[in-house]
Every structure is written in C-alpha cells, then in structure tokens.
Amino acid sequence: MDTDEELSILLELSEYDSFFDKKEKLLQSNGFSSKQRVCLWSPSKPGGTSDAVKVLVQIARIIHLNKVELYFADDARTSGEIYSPRNELEALNSIIPLIDTLLSSCKHPRTNILQELRTTILALISDLGDKKILGSIVEKELGCEQEEHLLEWGKSNGVRTQLQIAYVKGAGRGAIAEKDLKVGDIALEIPVSIIINEELVRQTDMYRVLEKVEGISSETILLLWSMKEKHNQDSRFRIYFDSLPEEFNTGLSFGVDALATSVGTLLFEEITVAKEHLRDQYGQLFPTLSDTFPEIFPPKMYTWKQFLWACELWYSNSMTIKFSDGTLRTCLIPIAGFLNHSLCPHILHYGKIDPATNSLKFPLSRPCKSGEECCLSYGSFSNSHLITFYGFLPQGDNPYNVLPLDIDDASCIDSTEDELTSSWTEHMVRGTWLSNNCNMYCYGLPSPLLDHFRRRGNPKLHTKTYLQGDLENEVRVLEDIRCISEAMMANLDDPSLYDDDREDCSWDEKLALEYKIQQREIVSSLLISCDSGIDMVKKELRKCMAEDIRG
Ligand SMILES: C[S@@+](CC[C@H](N)C(=O)[O-])C[C@H]1O[C@@H](n2cnc3c(N)ncnc32)[C@H](O)[C@@H]1O
What we know:
The protein folds into three domains: 7-130, set domain protein methyltransferase, domain 2 (Alpha-Beta Complex); 148-390, set domain protein methyltransferase, domain 1 (Alpha-Beta Complex); 403-550, no CATH class. Helices cover 44% and strands 11% of the residues. It is built from 18 helices and 13 strands. The longest helix is centred in the last third of the chain and has 44 residues, at 507-550. The structure holds S-adenosylmethionine. It comes from Acacia crassicarpa (northern wattle).
C-alpha cells in the first residue's frame, strides 16, 4: 500500500435494520450517511485519532440504537452524550472487530494508528464500567452447598467457567468473577448437552399426549415437563432442580394488598393481564389432562400453585437461544441461570450456539474485575415488566422504564411527512430528567410525541419556526401532553399515605409502593416539563406579537 494512502474505517447501517429509515435520517441530521467512511489518517490530516474516535462512536451509537432508545433520541446531542449504557457498550464493541479486520489485512505503514485506536476504544469501555450506576455488594464469597454441587456437576459435564457463585445484596445468588476478566474473555461456556430445551421432552410419553393438544406451544410443553421433572428423583437435572428456589417472588405472586397498592399503575395492568392469561391457559389444560392421563399428569403435581411456580421459573430464568439448525428455542441453562441483570451488563452477546464447540458461550463486552459480580442484560425492559416477570426493580435510572401512551388517533400519520420522527405508531413517555435537551421545541419530551401532536394541530407544519401560528400550535401541543399527564397523575394516589406502615411491609407491598413512587416521579417530571415549555413558548409568543405591533 502507498504510504500516502488514506487509512479509514467504513461504518455501515444494515439495510435489513428494522429502523433503517429512521436511523438513516438521524445519521443524516448529524452529518453522516448510512455508509460512512471515517478517515483515521491521511497526508492532509496527519494528527491523532481523537476526532476520528468521536465520529466513529457517534455513528456506531446511532447504528446500534434499539426501539426505545431511538424513540427518545433527539438529534441535538453533543458527541460526548450517551444514549444508554447498553447502547454505548454495543457501539464501542462493534468498532473493535472492524479494527481487527483491518489490522489483519492491512499493509498500511501506519497500522500503529489502528493499535492506538483499539486501545482508546478499550479504555472507553473500561471507563463506562467504572462509571456504572451502582456496583453490587457480594455478601458471601462462597456459594452454599447446593450451588457448589451444581458447579461441580456442570464442570463434570463439560462446563467451563471463570465465575463462582455467591450471595449478592438484594439479588439472591449471583456470579462473581474469580479473576480479572477482559473484553473478549469467555466468562462461561455451557455445552448443549446440559441445556434444557424442547429436544429433551420429545422422547417422553408426556410429549406424545401434548403434541395432540391444539395450539399448544413448545414453551408450554416444556413448562409442564419441568413441573413433573422437578419431583423426579432420577432426573438427569436433579442437582439443577434442587438448586432452584421454593418461591420466586415475582409480580405474578403478588398478594391482594400489594395489588391494591399498585392500583392505577402500569404494574397493576401488567400483572393482571399476565395472571388472567395464565389462569386461562391453566383452565384450558387442567383438570382435563390430569383426569384423562392421571399417571402422566398426577393431580397433586399439577395444581394452580405449582403451575404458577413453573411459570415464574420459566419467565425469570429462561433464555432464548439460537441453535445450530437455526431454530430459536426457549431454554433453561443450569449455572448461567445464576447471572443477574444489569443496566450496564458485562455480557451483551450470548444467544447463539457455537457450532464449532456445540456450546453456548458468554463472552465479556466489558471487563469484570476479580471479585466483581458479572451480569448480563435480560433485555431492555420497563420496571413494570421486570417486577411482573422477574420480581425486582433495577438499581439506577432505567432508560427503558417507559409508560406507553394510548393515544386514540395514533394512526393519523401524514404519509408525505418527511420529518425524522414521522412514522411512529406507538407513543410513550419516560422521566424527562433522562433527557439533556430542555430547550425550545424539545422540553425534555420525546420528539415523536411532540411531532404527533404538532401534526394533529397543524398537518402542514414542516418546520419549527418562531412565527406566531407555529408558536400558538406549540402551546396547544404542550397543553395536550399536560392534559394526558394530569389524567395519569389523577389515577395515582399519593404514596405518602402509606408512610406509617411502610417499615413492616411485605416484599410485594414494598415493590408495589416503590413502583408507584417511581411512576409518580415520571408523571411529575412530565408536568414540570410541560409547564416550563409552555412558559418558554408563551414568552416567545409575546416577543413575536410585540414585534408584529412594532412592525
Ligand atoms: C436468572 S435468575 C438469577 C439468579 C438469582 N439471583 C438466583 O438467586 O437464583 C433471575 C432472578 O434473579 C434476581 N435478579 C436478577 N437480577 C437482579 C437485579 N439486578 N436486582 C435484584 N434481583 C435480581 C431476580 O429475582 C430474578 O428473578
């Protein structure tokens, strides 16, 4: 290669990305294209890589936004601002293989620049971990007997691990790094042979009965299998079942008092809908199956209580894994089931069986120090989802803790509209403190929501001007959103009403109360943002009218 030739990296937004159009527009509004070459070195630009790093990260962030992050992404960000810890990790990690590919193929005399870039990206990843919201507190260095036993069993079946099991404050058991682990290290490797998935059940008598049940899913078949296998003393997975808790304490087990406390919140709706669905499902299967095949479905093993336990097990512990034949299967994975959730996870990519080793690997996307808890992400879930199906509230500010809005005319979209945020059909809100842009036309509120109401008031509006008509429309937009927020607040009674008995609350009442407080905080932040926005716009309106009079 010519010594004078430019050294650059190409970042590309996949045309198969579900949000291609929106991301492309966001890239364009930041001055980039969906196939953007970033120059690292050229004879005319011989300096360091720090500017290139900023640009690479800015583009990679947009490419890796998920739906919620994209909904709340506004285009007026400075290059240092992150969208979420998950997005930042994904973006930074996506740059490393691009550098490695260049390093392995490139004959450019300045490959030291690529090494320098790699070191910078790894340092940014490390920094993100150091700044992460709150670390977990390991309460007991060694796991108790059952967990040790399970680890030993796993190892004798081919599991390779750099993790130990210990108790973690507020999260039950967790997986702790037994030595310093760096990006790319495999924290845990589980052979397919010990992954509980539909293949296991196919050979059983139970499967032959259940496959004839119309519309039954493989998840339900597995769930029913696990209800019986749990009691099977000769099960291959005896040690695994012994390590499971007697109770899961998810939202599905909320008692009447906790449910009463959560009335008016999204959590109440989510738990009630999920419980109703499970009751229906149970009612369709039992007692019919136990009456018809009592040996396969012994009535004492197939009570509603046991069914709910199995649902909680599968909701809170299963993972969706892509097998080598291309099928996606919901699985229980012994040992990996000890990994807790974090908003800034160490492990981002773990969902695919490696055909070369026929195992599932859990590689690190950020370093984990010896003795630190190693976490993954269960998904970008709201707090109501995490309580309903996992039974906990995450530490720190959850960027995915959104409240969906049921706007009756959400489908009225102007198809000719070419604004970045035009085609959202679902709308949502979250705490406006998560936004850094409280300026005119943003107010900390999501742009797709503002644009939806703007178009409702003025379908022809294409630009945000300081003209009287646009400003008057803007006031109406903010008043509409304020009105929705007020209605939400009216449904939420004041949690200080419960102050007296908060101390001796049960686990579920505490969660319900904490959730209600959080939902009120979100709605209050909306009201504050609308009010300050209305003040801001009215001030501009007064200025505009004064100028008109003078003019
Ligand atoms: C897959 S299991 C993880 C292992 C679990 N801690 C245990 O003791 O078996 C998922 C459950 O762990 C707990 N959990 C996971 N992440 C948590 C977190 N960040 N904070 C509190 N509890 C958490 C919840 O009870 C959740 O239902």
